[in-house]
TrEMBL record:
Protein name: tRNA (Guanine-N1)-methyltransferase
UniProt keyword S-adenosyl-L-methionine, yes or no: yes
Keywords assigned by UniProt, alphabetized: Cytoplasm, Methyltransferase, S-adenosyl-L-methionine, Transferase, tRNA processing
Organism domain of life: Archaea
One GO-annotated biological process of the protein: tRNA N1-guanine methylation
Upper lineage: Archaea, Methanobacteriati, Methanobacteriota, Stenosarchaea group, Halobacteria
GO molecular function: tRNA methyltransferase activity
Length: 326
């Protein structure tokens, strides 16, 4: 069976394998193979693979020695992986515990299994979790060469947005001034800083900011990141006309903070605006809200419209990359 593989010379194989592993892109169901001095590394998806790597379709042997949860259950369970944690969304307690047992007994490198016990709630966007296996809700997640420590019961974090965060980070240049208005534990500002940007991350959640500062230290960029706990509308006057790049990842209510975004934006600023809208017009409401807040002070150019993921029936999570020029 042919699967997508990253093709790389053997001498660069280990570095490339580590890069793909950090991004959680290696497909554990297939073996890494080598032929004529070339390594073929199977990947789970191609969209997240760095653009400078060569992706080909190739037949590689299946990994026969690894016991997967599906082998123990007799069906394919649904879960997300975050670091060494597996995240379930099961209403049936018996089924959830059966899946948790199979995950821990499998040969996957997963030590903790959590089941969602509430919806995302409150201004900090956290949720309750039931610990089915493991010691608690803290984990360490690796993403495109960056490491993030976090507690899922105390902060908001979505592993599904890794590819989107990487897409934005690749646009960042050394020397930029980047501002994340809802920074969480730092999944945008840490990779920005690793690319040489000076960053400010603001969040209303004090625990998230504590993790952001720790993650900045873990990734060796604490000198380029300022973590501020507070309402960004209060912080904005201190950073008036400061930012070359702005991230607004609060999709249900980002429009309420656009006046502050305009205040923070510099002479020319790239705004990454996240929204959730009906599929009939997913981009229009956000574009209109940005123009209403920014014009005539800025000319507004929507450079990219991107569907990030399906959020709910007939609702899409989208991003608008918008250039503001004075």
């Amino acid at each position: 069976m042919e699967v997508p593989c990253v093709r790389v010379p053997s001498e660069a194989g280990e570095q490339t394998r580590q890069t793909l592993a950090d991004a959680d892109l290696i497909d554990d169901e297939y073996e890494i193979s080598v032929e004529d001095g070339v390594l073929y590394i199977p990947v789970t998806e191609t969209t997240g693979v760095p653009a400078d790597l060569d992706v080909v379709s190739r037949a590689v042997p299946e990994r026969e020695t690894q016991t997967r949860p599906a082998d123990l259950l007799g069906f394919e369970p649904s879960y997300e992986r975050l670091g060494t944690a597996a995240l379930l969304d099961e209403d049936d307690d018996g089924r959830a515990r059966e899946i948790a047992r199979a995950i821990v007994e499998s040969e996957l490198p997963l030590e903790t299994v959590l089941n969602k016990a509430s919806k995302v709630k409150g201004e900090t966007r956290t949720r309750d979790w039931e610990v089915l296996k493991g010691e608690g809700t803290e984990t360490v997640h690796r993403e495109y060469g960056a490491t993030f420590e976090l507690d899922l019961a105390e902060v908001y974090f979505s592993p599904r947005l890794a590819t989107e965060r990487h897409r934005v980070a690749e646009q960042v240049s050394s020397g930029e001034q980047a501002f994340d208005m809802f920074a969480g534990v730092g999944p945008f500002v840490v990779p920005f800083a690793k690319r040489g940007a000076t960053c400010v991350g603001v969040d209303i959640n004090e625990t998230a900011i504590e993790y952001l500062r720790e993650n900045a230290r873990k990734n060796g960029v604490e000198d380029r990141i300022s973590g501020i706990c507070g309402d960004v509308r209060t912080v904005a006057p201190e950073y008036e006309e400061w930012a070359d790049r702005l991230v607004m990842n609060l999709p249900h209510s980002a429009d309420e903070f656009l006046d502050s975004a305009v205040q923070i934006a510099g002479e020319e600023c790239m705004l990454h605006y996240y929204d959730i809208q009906h599929e009939d017009d997913p981009f229009g409401p956000g574009a209109r809200a940005i123009r209403e807040a920014a014009e005539p002070k800025y000319s507004v150019t929507v450079e990219n419209r991107r569907v990030v993921r399906s959020y709910a029936p007939h609702e899409l999570n989208v991003c608008l990359d918008v250039r503001l020029e004075r």
